[in-house]
């Protein structure tokens, strides 16, 4: 795996180092969802139960942390699809739960845009990664719910994800705007009438 900076091969991380990094990324994602990507690092450290130095050791800059959270959330959303299908009562219930994860991810993603303004190539690469990993996960959930007769079958995963994304834009700027409620109405509208 290339580290991108020096072109060399990065050494694989030990299992405990990967777990520690995942804890930091989960904590940062939770804080970003609540308070935005400009939240103080001390809040992330408190959420993770570590010192601020630990965060800076793993992520020297805020941009490094935000990009890592973005990638971590993409992977969590991508991997959640099959797990939710296996653990949910119905494919539609799995789709609803996945969309809620996706909304949390989008809150962080919108903050990422400001961080990457000066890096168009990096932003484009992350967007391509996002589509490559998440469109198939959403499509799988839509197909399962449509095959079960729970939702209409004429919706593309990209369309739904784009609609959810548009409903989430600006949610952090207006306390009266409840993006999650509107997304819930959108997803409810997919149901087939009984």
TrEMBL record:
InterPro entries reported for this sequence: Homeodomain-like_sf, HTH-type_TetR-like_transc_reg, HTH_TetR, Tet_transcr_reg_TetR-rel_C_sf, TetR_SbtR-like_C
UniProt DNA-binding residue ranges: 40-59
Keyword Transcription regulation: yes
Residues of the HTH tetR-type domain: 18-77
GO molecular function: DNA-binding transcription factor activity; transcription cis-regulatory region binding
Gene3D superfamilies noted in UniProt: Tetracycline Repressor, domain 2
The entry's keywords: DNA-binding, Transcription, Transcription regulation
SUPFAM superfamilies the UniProt entry points to: Homeodomain-like, Tetracyclin repressor-like, C-terminal domain
Domain of life: Bacteria
Transmembrane parts of this sequence: none
Xref: PANTHER family: HTH-TYPE TRANSCRIPTIONAL REGULATOR BETI (PTHR30055:SF234), HTH-TYPE TRANSCRIPTIONAL REGULATOR RUTR (PTHR30055)
Protein name (Swiss-Prot/TrEMBL): TetR family transcriptional regulator
Organism: Pseudonocardia kunmingensis
Source organism phylogeny: Bacteria, Bacillati, Actinomycetota, Actinomycetes, Pseudonocardiales
């Amino acid at each position: 795996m290339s580290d991108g900076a020096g072109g060399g091969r990065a050494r694989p991380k030990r299992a405990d180092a990967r777990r520690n990094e995942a804890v930091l990324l989960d904590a940062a994602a939770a804080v970003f969802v609540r308070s935005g990507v400009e939240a103080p690092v001390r809040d992330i450290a408190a959420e993770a139960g570590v010192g601020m130095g630990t965060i800076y050791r793993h992520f020297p800059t805020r941009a490094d942390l935000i990009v890592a959270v973005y990638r971590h959330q993409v992977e969590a959303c991508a991997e959640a699809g099959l797990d939710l299908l296996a653990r949910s009562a119905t494919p539609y219930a799995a789709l609803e739960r996945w969309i809620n994860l996706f909304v949390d991810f989008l809150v962080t993603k919108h903050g990422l845009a400001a961080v990457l303004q000066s890096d168009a190539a990096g932003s484009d690469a992350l967007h391509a990664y996002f589509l490559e990993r998440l469109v198939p996960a959403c499509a799988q959930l839509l197909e399962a719910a449509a095959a079960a007769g729970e939702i209409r079958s004429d919706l593309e995963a990209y369309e739904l994800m784009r609609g959810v994304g548009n409903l989430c834009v600006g949610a952090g700027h207006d306390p009266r705007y409840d993006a999650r409620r509107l997304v819930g109405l959108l997803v409810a509208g997919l149901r087939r009438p009984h």
